[in-house]
Amino acid sequence: MTENPRKLLVTGGAGYIGGVVAARLLNAGHQVTVLDDLSTGFRAGVPDGADFVEGRIQDAAKVLDPSFDAVLHFAAFSQVGESVADPGKYWRNNVGGTMDLLDAMRDAGVRTLVFSSTAATYGEPATVPITEDLPTAPTSPYGASKLAVDHMIGAECAAHGLAAVSLRYFNVAGAYGGQGERHDPESHLVPLVLQVAQGRREAIAVFGDDYPTPDGTCVRDYIHVADLADAHLLALGRAASGEHLVCNLGNGSGFSVREVIDTVRQVTGHPIPETVQPRRAGDPAVLVASAQRARDQLGWQPVRTDLADIVRDAWTFAQSLQEDA
């Protein structure tokens, strides 16, 4: 339990990451209200003990009042391909909605924000590991919308004294407290491979096996969702008036697509057929984070770094969903 319980609004708290963070906040003794329109989240994703308000980001003004201490903002559309096909949807929701949220926070006198940002703001970096001072050059409207929000938050801090931390995630996986990935459609590698293990998908597609990596497949940085959630609690305590702190969150080491598939085979005991497909446009060979700033500024240290443990937690959650179906 925390010595300083806070009243917190979690936007997008019915989604995967927002739901896990909300659960961790409750476990730490905070009072949590979840605002989510359930367009991509699930009512079952709202942890027990949280107050729930069904609504969009634009409805935050109806929820916030001076009794709230901070907002943790996860509500966003996040499908890269969809953002390319329908960019207006992403500008209206991710950018326009966050502008409305910042206005509502200012009007209510709520002066602390932790924002769910993304490594997609960097695009295809020339060097790895990726540090926060590298140029940002997103390759999709999704990444661009998140970067635009980071710029908005920075301006709000400078002009109005907001205390804000943006956390740029790399690949998030695993499960915590009965909460895990249940996207529809699913686009993330770990749950997709687990669907093959469950017999829900015939094979996993490997997009390119001729990259300049040890096994020819792309390498990505995977972080356990519970470690990610811990960083949000630390960010709440670190946020300082007038300052916008931006931190990467990752393990600092990468796993290849084939390593992930092999680990799922080991954890589940199921064969995982795979098909090699052509490379996808814009897929860098290696994306690995430097999270040194999060360590230095937040005191954050990921502890669930073993890929098998991450996959094992995700597999337990995936099986629970299949049993409930």
What does this structure look like?
- With about 325 residues, the protein is α/β, with parallel strands linked by helices.
- It is about 40% helix and about 20% strand.
- A seven-stranded parallel sheet has the order 3-2-1-4-5-6-11, with helices on both faces. A three-stranded mixed sheet has the order 12-9-14. Strands 7-10 form a two-stranded parallel sheet.
Q: What's the Cα radius of gyration?
A: 19 Å
Cross-sheet strand order for the largest sheet: 3-2-1-4-5-6-11
Order of helices and strands: EHEEHEHHEHEEHEEEHEEHEEHH
Number of helical regions? 10
Count the beta strands. Answer: 14
Structural class: alpha/beta
Strand content: 15-25%
Main sheet summary: 7 strands, parallel
Mean pLDDT: 94
Helix content: 25-40%
Q: What is the rounded distance between the termini?
A: 35 Å
